[in-house]
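User: quick one - fold this with NDP bound?
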Amino acid sequence: MVKVVISGIMGRMGRTIARLAYEDPEVQIAGGVESPDCVHFHENVKDILNKEDVDAPITADLSKIIERADVIIDFAGSTEAVLGHVRLAAADQNRKCMVIGTTGFSDEELEEIRQLSKDIPIVLAPNMSIGVNLLFKLVEDAAKALKDKGFDIEVVEMHHRYKKDSPSGTAVKIVDILKEATGIQKVIYGREGIYENGRPSDEIAVFALRGGDVVGEHTVIFAGLGERIELTHRAGSRDIFAKGAVEAAKWIKDKPPGLYDMMDVLGLK
Ligand SMILES: NC(=O)C1=CN([C@@H]2O[C@H](COP(=O)(O)OP(=O)(O)OC[C@H]3O[C@@H](n4cnc5c(N)ncnc54)[C@H](OP(=O)(O)O)[C@@H]3O)[C@@H](O)[C@H]2O)C=CC1
Ligand SMILES: O=C(O)C1=N[C@H](C(=O)O)C[C@H](O)C1
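Assistant: Sure. Structure tokens for the protein plus NDP:
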């Protein structure tokens, strides 16, 4: 049995994770964390799930309930808040595991998470679905196979109108994979203006579309002269991410300190 505290519990992902965690016999929901603005709406996860057999207090201050948890699953809508939670989890008196799904971290924030993972096990992944983690592998294989063969690379993602960060964390990771596989280092975000000599081959272009209720879509296009390959993942439900987060919490419970990702959890490495 793994006891989880879910941070960002009243958000789109937090509620979905709570529902799937409740349904999993190997998981016990021990508490929830919310923003100070939101926390007064519900005092207990039982009110969110409408289940009398849940007893899991919701607070804006993780330190008040951290001792109840084995693992903190963090999908808070603030990277500063998540970083604060990682510091608390890594403190000597706590040493709790973390599963982090929040995206949009700065390089400095990521470096601090990397340092703190020397003390506690952390799964950090911008996308916890099986399909997208397989897409990462397919993109790497395609990019290596097509390197220096005259294919232009474009990345397109689309998400719902409420998403804060652009491009998505998944697109950022795809770009990292493409840079490593191809050696191309120049990345442009959107496009406007004139190419006197046509599109340069030594750049990767990224387009972030936002609108409506799109759960999440990512396409990597390899466009050559006379042929085009497109690798696409479309999320139809947030359950795919939440399921991954719950699996990651079960997986990380007994792992040694270190920084892990979903490819580790899914055995895709
Ligand atoms: N890794 C993955 O597989 C996936 C990652 N994501 C990422 O997860 C994050 C959340 O997405 P989503 O659920 O759609 O966003 P939501 O805005 O629906 O939820 C975020 C929640 O976090 C709350 N929050 C804000 N500050 C704090 C705090 N200090 N402590 C605890 N909770 C806080 C927000 O409250 P308030 O509204 O009051 O600010 C809100 O309820 C995003 O970064 C998104 O990109 C999303 C899907 C999949
Ligand atoms: O905010 C979202 O909704 C999503 N965010 C993640 C990201 O930024 O990649 C994953 C997923 O695409 C949904």
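One thing worth noting: The chain has a mean pLDDT of 97.
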